[in-house]
Design brief:
25% helix; single chain; seven-stranded antiparallel β-sheet; START-like_dom_sf; ATPase; 3 helices; Alpha-D-Glucose-1,6-Bisphosphate, Chain A, domain 4; alpha+beta
Amino acid sequence: MNDATYTDAELAALDRIARQIDIDAPAERVWELVARPGWYVNDGAVAADPDLSYEGDVAVVRHPTLGEFRFRTVELDKPRYAAFRWIGTPFRDESTPSTLVEFWVDERDGGGVTLRVVESGFCGLADDPAAWLKEREGNDQGWLTELAAAKVFVEKSAPAPGARP
């Protein structure tokens, strides 16, 4: 991708990715997933029992084929909003580049929720726009895959909206 083809305004617009999906499950069940740091580190299916540990306030997710990823929780407002810093690799200190990943769980009339995600801050990953645009490129389509995986994971383990226990 050649950054010379983008205006400053276009680059600013590319600094964020926004996606959403409707899920037929209660907000509390969706919250259980989105409040877990790095649940979206997978091969297209959410792990029921991820390799998740902590080094101080940094969550470390290890995946057998994708590697190691680090996240810092920014805010948890149960059951509506969760935000994490997706910390670059290798992690050095607080100045390590990161993106902000935010999730909103919005209840729908008639049951179920809309799960929204916004990942922003790509321009802070590198001084060269070509480098951060390359980083963003994989995540752009990746969020479609991850939201679909979240839908499958949550719906298969949740009662249908409006179902009686």
